Amino acid sequence: MPFNHHFRVFAPYYDKIIKNSDESEYIKHAELPVSGLLLEIGGGTGRILTSFEGQVDQVINADITIEMLEVAMSKGIPSICSQGEFLPFEDGVFARILINDSIHHIDQQEMVVAEAMRVLSDDGLMLIVEPTYHEFSGFLIRIFEKVLFMGSNFLKDASLVQIIQKYTSSVTVHHYKGNSWFVVRKTI
Q: 80-120 pLDDT, tens per residue?
């Protein structure tokens, strides 16, 4: 993740600035509840993971910013300092994986998708949520992050789908409230 110093500064305020909205959309698209583990890659403060209590057996947060992880751990969310490109987990251990509003902060986006597919169980589902190019709100987010020199690399839906399809043929894209929701199933 380039320029993660922004997240070090924002960590204590992040949950106050960025609100968790539409928990039901995450639960619907991730097809919860389900038995097993859920991993969020780039989960930061764990603001989304708090929505999954009782929906999975356990959640795990992976992020590279210690300050964000400290906030998540203060909420009781198991967290690990890890790049999405090099996950310290065995193959096929997660029933669900979430990459929410973070893949554009990652340098090696294809490596993250490959790693996520590696640790996803054979019948698993991955949900990637990103600001969309299809609405003005996505444009504003891209401008905001550019002004802050965050080094973000936003992909259009077709480009992210193209990356995902190198690892599975099962991907659908939905649009809701300024976000593109990529529902990805592992196919063997």
A: 999 999 999 999 999 999 999 899 878 899 999 999 999 99
pTM: 0.87
Burial grade of 54 (CB within 10 A; 0-12, 13-18, 19 or more): exposed
For residue 42, give the 3-state DSSP assignment: coil
Per-residue pLDDT of 4-17, as tens digits, reads 556 555 655 556 77
CA distance 168 to 185: 7
Whether the ω angle into residue 78 lies within 30 degrees of 0, i.e. cis, is no
List the domains of the chain with CATH numbers: 5-16+26-185 (3.40.50.150)
**Strand ranges inside the chain, DSSP E:** 37-41, 58-63, 79-81, 94-100, 120-131, 170-176, 179-185
Place of tokens 């043929």: 169
Of 159, 101, 150, 154, residue with least CA distance to 127: 101
Q: What is the pLDDT of residues 149-171, one digit of tens each?
A: 666 778 899 999 999 999 999 99
**173-176 long-range contacts, CB within 8 A, separation 24+:** 174/29, 175/132, 175/134, 175/135, 176/22, 176/25
What gap in Å lies between CA 93 and CA 57, rounded to an integer?
Answer: 12
